[in-house]
């Protein structure tokens, strides 16, 4: 299984926590490709050793440093240039790879990923989940239609978990459209930059996957429970990917959420014990 991650130094500990949960729940051999622009060689080596140790040598890290991409992109402390890398990943990955699963570092893997990993793309470039909060969906669609002048935007997908069709991306590249949109969009038009970009450029080329199984928004426990009858037990048994969306993160102070205790346990196993 091929996994893609992208982050800067600030997210290395959350990345370790995600990877620790991945190794606990997926026992197949895993190749982890990290796209970044600024992580030091020392930190990459430490991460390589961490992966070898925590996976019992059943995973490897492939370091891919990106330079001179998206220099004119809108970035902030919260939204770094690394967020765009997933959309051009095929340029840096080996040509013999036809698919890869991108995972945000702010996730926990609770069950096997193979159902998602083996899913049929049906000629789409990506597979992604829609976070089905009607007011959020409507607001994001309206905002993008207004700022991009694309009237055929039907859904708004979350970019934190993406099955990427590398074969399709190589057949027809969208690099020019991606770069043009980044460099010429007004700053106010990119509220969630990489996610907005995904939904504009690839608006008719994304296959929907289950948000409950493959991109469960940890903030929405009560909503899912009321709307779908999806209880805590269902999450632990059926959800593959738990996503801590939003600016409030469980590794930061004063985080309050249904899954905070679970995350703190994983963090302790993955990071605290590793640093002792």
Automatic annotation (TrEMBL):
UniProt entry keywords in alphabetical sequence: Glycosyltransferase, Metal-binding, Transferase
Species this chain originates from: Anaerococcus nagyae
Protein name: Glycosyltransferase family 8 protein
GO function term, MF aspect, one: metal ion binding
Pfam (any one): Glyco_transf_8
InterPro entries the UniProt entry points to: Glyco_trans_8, Glycosyltrans_8_dom-fam, Nucleotide-diphossugar_trans
PANTHER family: GLYCOSYLTRANSFERASE 8 DOMAIN-CONTAINING PROTEIN, LIPOPOLYSACCHARIDE 1,3-GALACTOSYLTRANSFERASE
SUPFAM superfamilies found in the cross-reference section: Nucleotide-diphospho-sugar transferases
Domain of life: Bacteria
Signal peptide feature range: none
